Amino acid sequence: MNSHLAVAVKSPVHRRFAGLALAACLAVLLSASAVKAGCAVPYTGPVPAKSEPAPKIPFISHPADDDDDWREPATIVGLWHLIYTATSTTSGPLPVPIVPPGSFPFLESYKTWHADGTEFENAFLPPVVGNVCFGVWKEKKDGSIKLHHIGLMFDPATGKVANVFTVDEVNRVAPDGKTYCGTFDFKIFDAADVYGTGTVLQEIKGNTAGTRITVPKD
Predict the structure, then answer these.
(1) What pLDDT does 31 receive?
(2) Contact 25, 181 (CB under 8 A)
(3) Which residues touch 65 (CB under 8 Å, ≥6 apart)?
(4) Which regions of the chain are under pLDDT 50?
(5) Beta bridge partners of 153
(6) 3-state secondary structure 141-159
(7) According to the model, what pLDDT value does residue 45 have?
(8) Which of 9, 66, 117, 122 fits a 20 to 30 Å CA distance from 137?
(9) What pLDDT was estimated at residue 68?
(10) pTM (two decimals)
């Protein structure tokens, strides 16, 4: 896969909100105990020499008003806009910066979590390289969400399967149900390794930051 994706939120308002959501999620992850946690063609822009500590701010919370009709219990079921930020990488099929030190935007996507324990993701990538993938999830006793995700990467020149990949995540939904954050562990395998259980060709780890998408008001 030779294409590269620069993760960018087009709307200035959405850009500011996504930035705040990511900062809040990183702060929660840094302040909590460590947890081990697709469809990806990463952005390969400059990598900072050092990672500055994320500000310690809580999950973004939105007070109820006339423009806020989310009253359901906090759940990951629904449609989300996701930003993935890589913080640790190895060399391999994807030409990514090697970190640490630093971090870089890895992927942007829409993700749907279904109540039956399955998950679907549509990445902001050209379909020719593979931009849809699937997963299964369960809620753990501590309230966190564990996801196992799998997908295919294609050679854009031949259309053949180039690699299999998996993504394992551990996420936690904010109390207001509007955002979630966590960690991801992205691994690439040989094309014949259909379950992603053999030799790992490349591994990329980082953080997730999700913002819920809801039905617009009339």
Answers:
(1) 38
(2) yes
(3) none
(4) 1-24, 26-38, 43-44, 47-66
(5) 163
(6) CCCCEEEEEEEEEECCCCC
(7) 52
(8) 9
(9) 54
(10) 0.74
Structural tokens at position 183? 């960690």
For residue 71 the two structure tokens come to: 């009253």
Q: What are phi and psi of 67, to 5 degrees?
A: -100, 10
Domain 12-45+79-213 - what CATH class? mainly beta
Query: What's the pLDDT at 53?
Result: 46
Residue with tokens 């809620």: 139
At residue 81's C-alpha, the angle toward residues 55 and 167, to 5°, is: 85
Q: Which tokens is 69 given?
A: 């009709």
Please give, one letter per residue, the 3-state secondary structure of the chain.
CCCCCCCCCCCHHHHHHHHHHHHHHHHHHHHCCCCCCCCCCCCCCCCCCCCCCCCCCCCCCCCCCCCCCCCCCCCCCEEEEEEEEEEEECCCCCCCCCCCCCCEEEEEEEEEECCCCEEEEEECCCHHHCCEEEEEEEECCCCCEEEEEEEEEECCCCCCEEEEEEEEEEEEECCCCCEEEEEEEEEEEECCCCCCCCCCCEEEEEEEEEEEECCCCC
What contacts 75, CB < 8 A, 6 or more positions away?
Answer: 173, 177
